[in-house]
Amino acid sequence: MGIARYRKAPPHAVRISEREVLEAARRIRAAEGAATFGRRERKKALEVHRFGEQIVFALRGAPRSRPLAILDGACGKSHLSFVARLLVLPALGIRARIVGVDEVPQRIATCRRIAGRLELDDMEFHAARLADVALPGPVDVAWALHACGPATDQFLDRAIAAGARWILCVPCCHRRIERGFEEAGVPACGRLRSRLSDVLLDAARFLRLEAAGYRVDAVEFAGGDVTPRNLMLRAERTVCGRPPADAAERLARLARLFPDLAPPGRTLR
Ligand SMILES: C[S@@+](CC[C@H](N)C(=O)[O-])C[C@H]1O[C@@H](n2cnc3c(N)ncnc32)[C@H](O)[C@@H]1O
Predict the structure, then answer these.
(1) Does any domain span residue 23?
(2) How many domains does the chain have?
(3) CB atoms within 10 A of CB 64
């Protein structure tokens, strides 16, 4: 499937402009109680705009007859979900109940304050680790933007277990793989090993999703100027994806070469 490079807009009739996202981001920032909207906020808004384009594309066939249950994993201050709720989902004609989860209680307090001021009573926020949070029910859509290191894996575990049909996941910092490089003849160069480590971890995540019955794409959801961490795993559970058994076997093969790719507590044969 390869990496599809960032395109300005996915092929869909619904278009969300940068200007609209910037306006929504300013509104959200004001509801947070912050007086400024600086370079950092603008950059985040552009990141959210690009992610929003992927939501439009992924959810083009989602049901409109009932509200969708959406999980935002490692939501931080939930800029993505607020923009989705205010702009992207209404443009698609989708109603939703959004659950944001973050392990930092102050960020969750900020999310609740923003939701309260914007009168968004169909959003709820939980201060918990993704591995431990009690989700209110099954999930239709799960997204995570830059969940730190292992939080991305916890997010994928929870999204798959909760039965999410659509998963949009942009990993952030990666833990380092230590084992397997010597045996595979990789140069003893920290920088190269670090980059390879990132790619291998995302490859294992890709295969884990395929093995769970998802059709997966790895897309550059934004240009490198917007964020250097711009790889998105975009997945939809379907019966017409690659055979899960084949993906599981590939994952096992990869983990035999690089044993740190085996999920914690699980030995892959
Ligand atoms: C880089 S921030 C991204 C926040 C937000 N998604 C965004 O794009 O603005 C990463 C977030 O992950 C949260 N986090 C890290 N590990 C977590 C875990 N195991 N469970 C829940 N949240 C976690 C951090 O508290 C932080 O808010």
Answers:
(1) yes
(2) 1
(3) 10
Token pair recorded at residue 191: 């920088």
Coil, strand or helix at 122: coil
pLDDT per residue as tens digits for the range 210-261: 999 999 999 999 999 999 999 999 999 998 878 899 999 999 999 999 999 9
Q: The CATH number of the domain where 91 resides is what?
A: 3.40.50.150
Identify whether the C-beta of residue 49 lies closer than 8 Å to the C-beta of residue 86.
no
Task: Give distance in angstroms: CA of 158 to centre of ligand 1.
Answer: 15
For the segment 71-87, the average pLDDT, to the nearest whole number, is 98
195 lies in some domain: no
Tell me what pLDDT residue 7 has. Answer: 55
Structural domain includes residue 44 = yes
Kindly report the pTM of this predicted structure.
Answer: 0.93
Does residue 129 line the site of ligand 1, with CB under 6 A?
A: yes
* Domain annotation covers residue 72: yes
pLDDT exceeds 80 at position 265: no
Tell me if 158 CB under 6 Å of ligand 1: no
Q: How far is CA 194 from CA 12, 182, 190, 201, 213, in A?
A: 37, 14, 6, 11, 29
Q: Yes or no: say if 135 and 99 are a contact pair by the CB < 8 Å rule.
A: yes
Q: Across the chain, what does the average pLDDT equal?
A: 92
Measuring CA to CA, how many Å separate 115 from each of 35, 47, 48, 104, 108? 17, 21, 18, 17, 10
pLDDT number for residue 269: 40
Mutate to test the pocket of ligand 1, among 55, 103, 227 (most ligand atoms within 8 A of CB): 103
Helix (H) or strand (E) run with residue 62 in it: none
